[in-house]
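Ligand-bound model needed. BES.
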Amino acid sequence: MTALTLSTAAAPGLRADAIVVGVAKGTGSKSGDLVVAPGAEAVDKAYDGRLAGVLETLGASGGEGEVTKLPAPSGFKAPLVLAVGLGALPEKDDSFSGETLRRAAGAAARALAGTKKAAFALPVADAADAGAVAEGALLGAYSFDAYKENGKDAKNGKNGKAPLAEVALLGGKPRDKAYKAAVERATAVTEELNRARDLVNTPPNDLNPESFAAVAQAAAKEHGIKVQVLDEKALEKGGYGGILGVGAGSAAPPRLVKLSYTSSKAKKHLAFVGKGITYDSGGISLKPAGHNETMKCDMSGAAAVFAAVVAAARLGLEVNVTGWLALAENMPSGSATRPGDVLRMYSGKTVEVLNTDAEGRLVLADALAKASEDKPDAIVDVATLTGAMMLALGNRTFGIMANDDAFRSAVHEAAEEVGEAAWPMPLPDHLKKGMDSPTADIANMGERYGGGLVAGLFLKEFVGEGITWAHLDIAGPAFNESGPFGYTPKGGTGSAVRTLVRLAELTASGDLG
Ligand code: BES
Ligand code: MN
Ligand code: ZN
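Prediction:
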């Protein structure tokens, strides 16, 4: 894990392997020029004020995420200066957005893999900016090498490229409460988010419902969170037909995990519900090759919920947060649920399973019905639920559906605030008819068009009467199959973690709806 500190050191005398500065594209009267961003004054001075010119000579454009390395000026203890592009210089004041800083810090941290210590001299105007740079650096420095043969060597820095180990954040105020709090928050949230990424990246032969539940149990113990694990016998006894039906084909039986973080000062209660399919083969409605290679990512919702509850506990938020992890492996076998089977769900409703690959909604339905019994002030579920949502919104934006317009907007705002791309989606009543079943109360599939909304409408049927609910379909952004960008690595991304934490914070402070 990368360590991060606020430092008052001046860049020249700093013992580090690299100094990170920001460079932007000039706008307005400076249009066409490269501009060295505030925070790097001492570095620029050491180049006799010629840093922008030097960078231009090296071909830098100031474009977002662009990285240019150059030898540090003489007299500097650090040998390397790394300039990271910030995009266009903000027109009005010199304040860059939190997300711009986060992405730039992330790109710089990634480019510094293999280096031990770097000082970040990026434009930090206030505590929130310091938090953003810290988040970006700590998220960008992530790497998953547990299964690389040279992974251990890489960690020792002998071989391969170990992630950046140490970050000193310059330009902040280490003694200022707000700065300290911002960096502490960034550390807690990013450590848990990176842990969610680890869970997503862990291959499905090592992460199954049982081992996921054990990880949750250990973390809960460490952070004073109450935890309850329902195993297959308890699920049977409780009548969780959805979770059991999805897990029926697997040699690794399903689990339902309840994590309860409580604060003595809480006035509100939030419930988070996560889809935790540790591998989605599709079941008897087997996915074809080409569609199953990345399906270890199908527990990303549960990983996000888990990370958010632990982060809320670490931050001591004054709100009660319950996390529900609906864990199962969706496999075909002689004991698997068949297309045509009818499941009796926890809520008492019956579901005709027309396609065993529409399994996420089945495990979530049971968890939503169970979570509703506590009568929380709101429920938010997170799921890699439909390919249709990816067709609609692409692979960097998650869809938000809800049974309450104001709450959907509040969730969207929270996502925007933390730099997660999200978009509101409707739940049109007329699509419900497609799920009519001649045999059961409802079928687990409906019209093909609007498949993401159909899944949302199915879930809505299992949310308790009068409970405010939102559904985040993170099928697109949960797993990055292309190259890394900004602070987002290849593979598991930790999508929705920061939105959930922000929702818990806003609920604690009474600022949510
Ligand atoms: N886990 C998938 C959705 C998914 C697809 C997530 C691609 C991430 C990337 C889900 O269980 C699924 O298979 N959904 C089906 C539903 C259909 C059978 C109604 C889908 O979207 O095709
Ligand atoms: Mn599926
Ligand atoms: Zn799935």
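Residues 280, 282, 357, 359 surround manganese (II) ion (ligand 2) (CB under 6 Å).
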